[in-house]
């Protein structure tokens, strides 16, 4: 599940999403990554509108991404619906196992696009959460650079980054890419930096 949308339904969803974005004054830049499996990050994140807007951009590009949700959201009677729209349950009581759980998901599915917002909050943060990097590296999949730029009303998915294990060098590439991207509230944008970039061990968040 949660793969590039194909068939008539997928094309209709993509066309409708592009229409909604165009009517709202937004422009889709570029196309979808050719990879079948990757971690999709999105930045900058300064408003609650960022997530639904990024999901619209993904749909416009023919992508049906998976996203992480608190495990309690998946209980009856609506758990099936949450899964249907791409939700993956996460038990926050077992934080140390998150990387392993998500890595296993990638191994099980030949096509999977997993959204992992690195900032975690619309408020200014001193650093990004590092889970997206460790999941991608553990699973052996690239990181796709989703972006929104409110100053130009443009968005899309940039280049793929394959984690090399050199955290500082990899983050330098992310910093260079996001340097000119502006959120709705620029004053809330924090630095593109992970806590302890010299330590590549999976975090226990």
Task: Explain what this protein looks like in three dimensions.
The chain is α/β, with parallel strands linked by helices and 205 residues long. The protein has one domain (7-188). Helix content is 32%, strand content 19%. It contains six helices and seven strands. It has a seven-stranded mixed sheet, with helices on both faces. Strand 3, helix 3 and strand 4 (87-90) form a beta-alpha-beta unit. The longest helix is centred in the first third of the chain and has 17 residues, at 7-23. It is globular and about 45 Å long.
Secondary structure layout plus pairing:
Layout (H helix, E strand, L loop, with lengths): L6 H17 L3 E3 L7 E7 L6 H11 L5 E5 L8 H6 L2 E4 L7 H11 L3 E4 L15 H9 L3 E7 L4 E8 L5 H12 L27
Parallel strand pairs: 1-7, 2-5, 2-6, 3-4, 3-5
Antiparallel strand pairs: 6-7
Helix pairs in contact: 1-2, 4-5
GO molecular function: 1-acylglycerol-3-phosphate O-acyltransferase activity
Keywords: Acyltransferase, Transferase
Pfam family, one: Acyltransferase
Supply the key terms.
single chain, 205 residues, alpha/beta, seven-stranded mixed β-sheet, 6 helices, 7 strands, 19% strand, globular, disordered C terminus
Q: State mean pLDDT (0 to 100 scale).
A: 89
The H-and-E topology, N to C, reads as HEEHEHEHEHEEH
What structural category characterises the helix and strand content? Answer: alpha/beta
Give the DSSP E fraction (strand runs of 2 or more residues).
15-25%
What's the story with the biggest beta sheet?
7 strands, mixed
Helical segment count:
6
How many domains? The number is 1
- Shape annotation: globular
Report helical residue fraction: 25-40%
| Structural Rg | 16 Å
- Our measurement of the CA-to-CA distance between the termini, rounded to an integer number of angstroms, reads 27 Å
Strand order of the largest sheet: 1-7-6-2-5-3-4
What's the number of extended β-strand segments? 7
List the uncertain runs.
201-205
Pathway: Lipid metabolism
Protein name: Lysophospholipid acyltransferase family protein
Region (Disordered): 182-205
Pfam families: Acyltransferase
